[in-house]
Structures are given as C-alpha cells and as structure tokens.
Specification:
binds zinc ion
Amino acid sequence: MKNSNSKNPCKKYELAITSYVLEQKMNISKGKLNAHLSTCQKCSRDLQEWQKSVSVLRAEAHDVKPKSKKIRTGLLSQIKRKRTTADTK
Ligand SMILES: [Zn+2]
C-alpha cells in the first residue's frame, strides 16, 4: 500500500476537483481533468459530491442574513419583554 500514491492517478485529480469546484487555480489543466473525469467514475462522482456540498454551503451563506435577522428580531422582543417586566417590578 506504500506505492498507492504513485500508482493511483486519482490522487492528483482529487486536488484539481476541489480547486475546480471552488473556482480556484488548478494544478492541472481543465482539459486533462475532463479527460480523466470521462474515464474515471470515482472522480466524476467525487466532483458531483463536491459540487453538491459547495452549492449547499453557498445556499446557507445566502440564507444567513434573513435567518439571523429573524433571530435578532426574536431576541429583541424577548429583551424588550424582560425589560418591561423588570421595569414594572
Ligand atoms: Zn480518478
């Protein structure tokens, strides 16, 4: 298993897939990656998985504002309620 790195061509493509999905500079050309993806099921599945998780992350990042706004509004009304009960004491 020691030689698995040199024998496994997917190793260098794994990094390229990650870079490709994150729209970063790749260590190999896009053409080479696509050529490998068309012959390697494992890597094309890997790419799909990455694209899925990245799109989920992007959706969550997009959602952060309205969600936190709701939470803040909820917290604010709680604080206001507490204040008014404390004031009437
Ligand atoms: Zn592969």
